[in-house]
Structures are given as C-alpha cells and as structure tokens.
Amino acid sequence: MNIALIAHDKKKDTLVNFAVAYKHIFEKATLYATGTTGLRIMEATGMTINRFLSGPLGGDQQIGALIAEDRMDLVLFFRDPLAAQPHEPDILALLRLCDVHDIPVATNIATAEILVKALERGDFAWREVK
C-alpha cells in the first residue's frame, strides 16, 4: 500500500499528530510525502518516508506522477481552505489525478480517519485487483 501524506503549513501539526496516532497502520505501508511534511512526520514517528520536494517547488506534481503511473493507493492531503496557495493549479491537478485514477483522497482529518480505519479493516483490497 502506497500512501501520500501532504499538508499545508497550518495543517502540518494536524497531519503529524494523525501520523503518530495511526503509526501502527502507516508503518505497514510505503509512505511518500512532500518535503517539510515528510521530515516532520519522520522526526515525530521514526517511520521511513520517501520525501519529495515541497509542494510549491513541485512535490505535489511528483506525487501526481506516481498517481498517473498507478503507483499510489491513497492520498491524505490536509488542505488549508482559508489560505490562498500560490501553487493552487498544482493542487487542483493533483486532486484531478486522484479523480481520474480512482485514488481515494482525504482533504481533512475527518475523511482521513474514515479512510485509514477502512485501510486497517482491509477494505482497500480492491486496489490489489488492478
């Protein structure tokens, strides 16, 4: 299971805490993240994270490439809906790729929790069918 972890600046603490809370699930997966987010999760959990560039420098697009190649199974992207992002087109492109390739994506902690609990139950077995 390949999982991408992305968070805007004001949501990084939330995603780090989420990763700590669900470490027992995440440590069974291969994790990918954008720059600072990945570093912070690694420092807090000790888990190995495959890190890309920061989002504004192309990290969102690097994760998008994995989605386009059918090499990503789940995306957790904790977005800040109250702040304008200078790389908004990249964010929308990433979300569009998730829709095109049927990749489950959570943009907030409530949806992320539902998806991670489904992952824990084994509800993502359909991803193996492709």
From TrEMBL:
Substrate binds at residues 8, 12, 34-37, 54-55, 87. This is Methylglyoxal synthase. The keyword Transferase does not apply. Belongs to the methylglyoxal synthase family. Its EC number is 4.2.3.3. It comes from Tumebacillus lacus. It is an enzyme of class 4 (lyase). InterPro entries: Methylgl_synth, Methylglyoxal_synth_AS, MGS-like_dom, MGS-like_dom_sf. The gene is mgsA. The keyword Flavoprotein does not apply. Keywords: Lyase. The lineage of its organism: Bacteria, Bacillati, Bacillota, Bacilli, Bacillales. Residues 1-130 form the MGS-like domain. Coiled coil: none annotated. The active site is at 60 (proton donor/acceptor). GO terms for molecular function: methylglyoxal synthase activity. Catalyzes the formation of methylglyoxal from dihydroxyacetone phosphate. It catalyses: dihydroxyacetone phosphate = methylglyoxal + phosphate.
